[in-house]
Prior knowledge:
Elements: H1 27-43, H2 46-56, H3 62-74, H4 80-93, H5 105-133, H6 146-177, H7 190-234, H8 238-265, H9 279-291, H10 295-316, H11 368-371, E1 379-383, E2 387-393, E3 398-399, E4 416-417, E5 422-428, E6 433-437, H12 451-467, H13 470-481, E7 488-489, E8 513-514, H14 517-535, H15 541-544, H16 552-571, H17 587-591
Antiparallel strand pairs: 1-6, 2-5, 3-4, 7-8
Amino acid sequence: MALPVVMCLFTWMPLSARGDALTKLPRTLQKTVREQLLPVVAGGNPVLQLQEVADIVPKLNEAQTKAVDAFLAEHKLPALAVVVVDARSTLMGYGFAAQMPGASPKEAELLVPEVTRRMEEALVESRQFHQKANGDKVNQDGAIDFAANENRLYEMRALRRRLEAAGQLGRYSRDWITDPKARTRSVISPDHQARIDQLAGLTTQVQQASYALDEYELTFRLAQFRHAVKLLDGAVAFRDRLLAIGVIDEDGPAIREVLGRAAQANWQYTNAELNDPNLSVTIQATGDAALATSPEILEKSRLFRQGLQWWLRGRYGRGPDGYGLLKSELALISPAAQMGIYLPNETPTPTDPANPSKTAVPEVDRRHHYIWGMEYRRVQQVSSESMTATGKSTNRWTPVPLDSRGRGTGGNPSGRSQYDSVPFTVVSHWNVVQSSITAEDSRFINRLVGFQEYSNALQKLDRLSSLSTPEEFAVYDELVGQRDEFCIYTNLSRRWERQPSSLSSTIAGEKYERRGMRWVTALARTEVGSMLTAFSSVPNPYDLIAVGTNDQQEYHDLLLDGTRAHYWALKQDPAWSDFDRFSRDVQRPLTY
C-alpha cells in the first residue's frame, strides 16, 4: 500500500539538522531519524508513517523517544505518539482498521496514553455541550429560527463525529494492543496493563455519552419537526414553506435513524415518549404527507441546504497534510479518503484577515493564495548532444584549373566553380539546455481541500439559482446573510499595500465585509477556478465555471482582488527580485 509523495510545500523547513535534540542518540539512529523518519512524518502518508514508526520505536528507550519527539517539534511536527494514533485513526476512518497489524510493546506504550487522552477529551466536550445546551427549547411559536437551529445542529454533528471517532479508537485500540500475534499483554508493564484495562471503561463511558447525545438530538429534532408541520399547514409565504419543508425533510429521517440505533442496542431513554415503538412509523407517515404538498419547494430546499453544507466544508475544512490544505495521499485512489477532512467543533465566525489582533478564522482566507505555493510538477532540463550531418551541396565553391593568365576556366574569373556539387560532412558541436515542465496529472487536484467541496456547492447552488425566481432568490440571500459563518471579507490586498496607489480601493470607511448568496457562490467559483488553473489542463477555467451565473459582479471583484493581492505580495517578496531570465533556479519560479 506504499504511496508516493506527490506534493511538496516550498515553504517547508529544510530537513537538515537543527538544534542538538538528537545528539544523545547513536549515529546510526540519528541518520535513520533524519533521513527516513522525518520525511515520512512530514509526507503525511499514514501507511508509510505506521510502517516507519513500527520499525524505529522498538530501537528507542524512553530518553531517546523524548529526544526524537523534541527533534520532530523543532520541525513543527507532532510527537511519535500523536503520529502513530493519527495514522491508525486515518486508516480506521478509511475502513482499514481490521487490516492493520497489532501494536508492538513499545508502540503500545505510546498508543495507550494518547488514545486515553483523546477519549477523555471527547467526554469533557460532551459534558460541556450538555451544560451549554441545558434548557434550550425550540421556539414553537412564530417563524422558524433558521440561524439558531442550524448552529445547534452543527454543534451536535461535530460532537457526534468526535464521540464516534473516540469510541472506534477505544474499541480497535484494545484489539491492536491485545493482538496475540504481537504478544503484547505478556510483556507490557503492569502500569500500561492497567491503562489497557482502563480503555474498556472509557469506551463504555463514550458509548453512554453517545446515547445521551442521541436523546438530546431526538428531543430537539422532534420539537422542530412538529413545529414545522404545524407551520406548514397555514404557511403561505415562500420563506416559511421553504424552512418548514427543509426541517421536515432533514429531521424526519434523522429521527428515524436515531430511533433505529436505540432499538438495535436495546437502549431505553429517560424520556418515555422516545421509547414508543410506533414513533418512527408516525414520523415517517407525517413527514411524507407534508413533503408531498410542495415537491418543487422540496427540491429547492434540498439544493439550498446541501449546497451550503458543502460550502462550509470547503471554507472551514482542514486536511491532515500540508498545514491543513491537503487531504491524505489516499485521496488519489480512494473516494472515501476525499471526504476525510476536519471541521471546527463550533459554528465558526470568520474574522477580518487584515486584523492581526485576532486569531484567523478560517485559518486561510483564500485557499489558492497558499496552494499555488505547492507544486508536484518539476522543471526538466535536457542538454542537446553533438550531431553529424552528411549530404551533397549545390551551394559549395570548389577550385577548378586556372588558365595561363591565372583566370578560371568556365567563364568564372574567380577561378572557382559556383555550382559544383560535391559531397560533404559537417560536424557541429553545441550545448543548448532545453527546459520543459513535467506533464499534468489530473488526480492530484483531488488532494486539495476545497476542490470537491466547493465544486459540489456550486453544482447545487447554481442549479438552485436557475430554478428560482428573483423573489425566491432574495429569500436565500436573506437567510444566508443572517448567518455569520457565510460572511467573507474582500480587498485582502490591503495587507500588502505600503501606500495608496491606483490599485487601492477608493471607498472611505469601508469594512470589506460581504454577505449574501452571490458572494458565497463567487468565493467558491474563485477557489475552484484557481485550483483548476494550477492543477489541471482545463482551458480557461475562470471563464468556464462562470457561464450564465448571476454573481458576475461579485466574481469579478474577487478575481480583481486576487490579482491585486498577488501583485503586491510579489512586489514586496525579496526572493522574487532575485529571479531573472539568467537565473539558474528554475524550480522556485515555477512555483511562484
